[in-house]
Amino acid sequence: MTRRYYPKIRVISCLLVVKTNPIVPYQLKIIQMKPLDESIKSLKQKGNSRREFIKNSAKVGAFFAAAPLTGMVSPSLLSARKPMDTMMHGIQIGAVSFVDEGVEKVLDIVQERGAVNTLFLTVFTYGRGLSGRQLPGEPFPDHGSQVSDDKTFHGGNYAMPHAQYYKNTVLKETRAPEHGKFDILASVIPEAKKRGMKVFASVEDQWRPDTPGVKQCAEVDILGRRTNTLCLFHPDVRAFWIGLVTDIAKSYPVDGVLFFNERNGPLLNALGASHFQTIDSTKATCFCEHHQREAKKLGINFQRAKAGYLKLNEFVKSSLKNERPSDGYYVAFNRLLLEYPEIVAWDKLFDLGKHQVLNEVYAAVKGVNKNLQIGFHVEHVNSFNPFFRASRSYEDLAEKADFLKVVAYNNCGGERYANFITNIHSTLFRDVPAEELMRFNNRLLNYGNEATIENLPTAGLSPDYVMRETQRALAGVNGKCKILTGIDIGIPTKSTSRKGSPEDAYAATLAAYKGGANGVILSRKYSEMDLADLDAAGRAIREGTKG
Length: 547
What we know:
Layout: E1 8-12, E2 15-19, H1 38-41, H2 50-66, H3 75-79, E3 88-93, H4 95-101, H5 103-112, E4 118-125, E5 156-157, H6 184-194, E6 198-204, H7 214-217, E7 218-220, E8 226-230, H8 235-251, E9 256-260, H9 266-271, H10 289-297, H11 302-320, H12 329-339, H13 342-368, E10 373-378, H14 381-384, H15 386-390, H16 394-398, E11 403-407, H17 411-425, H18 434-445, H19 456-459, H20 463-477, E12 482-488, H21 502-514, E13 519-523, H22 531-544
Parallel strand pairs: 3-4, 3-13, 4-6, 6-9, 9-10, 10-11, 11-12, 12-13
Antiparallel strand pairs: 1-2, 4-5, 7-8
């Protein structure tokens, strides 16, 4: 490998800025967001409650109409409110809710109480985040079955797969078995159309290891073990996603597709730089033959990349044992990147594969009908992690999407953000006190006045956070696609963490519209939501979209 193919790495504060060879098309970018003007900051002084935020929302709206936000969204975009029926007010719903409560009843509830005009139906996933009843051990909401489906949940395709679209993949047998012949799209679309509701098919990159074909397509970690995640460069995986979305677009009168892929690259996984994982650097992926093939095309040395991740594994293990390097954790980490620039190159290779899948999904759906809308789910780690943000340019994503669902879950966000800080504090930032690290990270992310790390899980993140994340996304896409803010309604948290209330649902939903959102998606799924929370979100939707 010649020197000219190495990424040149510089470290600025705690952000990685990577200047890559032009042969790699996806540049890492850091979007520097300037703070809001002091006049808006005064509306959210320390100690203000969520109730006070609601009282101040009228002042915030007036400020948006009167003065520009430095480095953010133009006041014309924020104040130009579209009629309610032209915006997308969505909710995520799995098949089990329609089976338990009936299609017409569920649609009546979400439309009349939640002001919902767009359904995001979970069509494909093996994960419980988007499908199934309430998570085992969590209290049931005040509707639907009160019996756990822990023993019967399976997952898969909740519509009817048509074999001709899966000829080029070993991933053929994916039909979800738990609801018999129930087809979520065939059953819900006719009733939804009667009510003037749009229907999108949600598909998620979540698998179970006993699904036929998964073992052949699985990623390989640095120790050579097969995992439960699928390699994004594997031709059968690529053929599956193309086949699935083509099948949906051709076989059902949907309005579009929402694609979920909540996976990080090997560098962040090795460091535990997320909010939902334990730290195990041996599980960094992928080092299979298909990744090696793609790496060779780009001039990335596979052997050095693997050697670098093995060294990174040693660093992480030593950090978790509190074995401090003589120059400190962060300096040792930077030295490792300078010695093995292939570490970052391999991380970017993962991003390249992910973006190629997004491009292919977009092209497949548009190839069926150019008027169908394609959206991508932007995972929560994008909100917390400056490393991840640097690898996910909103402007780039907007080139391949009609809308982005930007996760701004604020109630569970406190617990998740605290977990993220705890994780990165365990490795490369171990020399920095956790509270100082969080405050520094807040500055990097343009967060407002949030709770201390000790109080974050019980306090949650504020509605102001929801508004800022919405504004950041709008500024990032620069008018190239719509922004739908993901709102936390009843997402489970630990027993000691914040539980959302109707007031929280109202404040967060209203904050998204005050931030200029083109709509919201109530998340994660209807089967987790209390109806009082749905009522509150619906009230905010109606108020937030008034003339």
